[in-house]
Structures are given as C-alpha cells and as structure tokens.
Give the backbone structure.
Amino acid sequence: MDSTKRIKLAKGKQRKLIGEAKNARQSNWRELAKAVGVCEGYLKNELIKEANTLNAGVYLHLCSIANKNYDKDIVCVLDKNWGRAKGGKLAAHKPKKPMLLLSTPNEGLAEFIGIMLGDGSLYTIPKRSIYQIRVFGHKIDEYDYMCGKVFSLFKNLFGIEPSICTKMGKEVVVLSKQSKNLAHTLRYFGLKTGNKKNNGASIPPWVFEKEEYLRACIRGLIDTDGCVYPKTKKHKTPTIWFSSVSPGIRVSFTKALKILGYRVSKWVSRKDSDSQSCSIGSSKEVLRYYKEIGFSNPKHELRFRKFCNAPIV
C-alpha cells in the first residue's frame, strides 16, 4: 500500500483500531504515538476522535501492533494530494501537467508553510499563465531574515532561486517567484490561492502529524505575523503575540499550540483592523517556547534578548 495515501475507515473503526493497538502494546499515548510515527497530541486529540483520516503508513503500523486486519472496513483510499479540495477535479485539457518540486513533507516545508500563511501570498490565473508566489517583509527590520533564512529555505526546498526586490517609496522587501510547478507544489501540500481571510486558509492537516512539523510551522507564523513585547516595564520576560485576519489560521494556530502543550490568551480584535491577536504570556511558557521553537527572524531574537536583559542558556 502506498504509504503517502490516506485511509478512511467506516465510522467508529478508526477509534477501535487505535484502542486495540494501545491495549495490545500496553503503552501510554506517547509511546504509541512514537511507535506509529505521529505526535502524541495529534493521536489522542485528532485521530482517536476520527477528526482526520489515517496516513496509510500509520494505518499499517496500527494494524501490525494490534495484530488485526481492518482492510474490510476501509471505505476508501484517498489520493495522496492532501491539499486538493474534496471533490475537486483536474481540468480536462491541460497543455502540460505541472511537476512536484518535492514529494514528501519535512520540517523545512512546514516552516515555509507557516511563513506563507503569515506574510506570503499564492496568486494564480491559469488562463493567463500567472502563478505568482510572494513573501513580504519590512525593508529594514526584516531584510536579513528575508535575504537569509527565507531565501535559503526557498532555494533548498524547491531547488530554484526567488528574486528579491524592494518597493520604491515603501518600507517593503518582496521575495517572489513566477512558477507553475511551485504553485502546484504548494497547493499539493495544502496552501490555497487568493485571499487568506476568505479562502479558508489554515495549517494543513499533515503538519499536525508530527510535533517537529508543528513547531516549525508555528515558528514560521510567528516570525512573520508575530511580535515580541515586554509584559511590563519592569518584567524581564516578554510576551509573544500573534495576529491574523484569517479565522481558519487563528483556529488552527490555537489548536497547534494546544497540542504542543501551550496555553494562549483569548483572541482580541485590534482597533481599526480586521485582524485579531492572541498571546503566550506565561513567563514559563514563553521561555519554553524560546528553547523548543525559537525564532528564525533576527528581529524577534534581538527583541527577545533585549527584553530579557540577559542571554538565555
């Protein structure tokens, strides 16, 4: 069975299979999650509740551990293209089928997905052969981040170099690439085209399968649409904030941090904006975030150390 496909079992059977595997192994959730290759929170909060289908590789691991065969309960085997909308169909006549620039997910891709969900855009008009991928940053504060981390990540992941330019009269630096194959690849892995507020943009399901993917994606989101501020003038540990105009991104962001064991504040609306913000304010959790997830954006790194008044070891 192709391990990149997804298995949909009859209602109640996925829960039963996971329960039988857990009992057969006589292990806790963390041990079972490690055995089948997913993160603990995803297994006990998503898969056991049948909120998502099973990756074929995970399904085979569970059957092996439980010493049971659930093939007769398979309703359907879903295509490995996780990012395609349910029921969507390819156009009947295409001059040339686009190619995937990478076929399997990794931490780097998860971080890039976070960056795109934060300050990126995927804009396509197939009839006009427009397939535009862009990432925006502040021309001064984030120039090193854009030309260093984002550029290198882009090139290493997809094997192509984006262009970098600054907008005349604006404090904006733009990393961009016109590529049908890249647009196809990003859609394949769950990104949607168009306005993120209106298109239901959210963290793709595959990111929730491994904690390292979740940490990388959250890092990309906060590096782009996050900020670091002092809690008070006298308090040494700062607060980490995240803002988004997209309801789907906000919901999946909260869900991701919950799986990783973080508590976030309630989302609050910002004045004169459609955006809403939440924060990680507990000093203990902020320090844990810094050590477990950290920042790739030097702007946040420098502000964090400045407000802490001392190096973090």
Notes: The first strand starts at residue 6 and ends at 9. The domain at 6-78 is CATH 1.10.260 (434 Repressor (Amino-terminal Domain)). The mean pLDDT is 88.
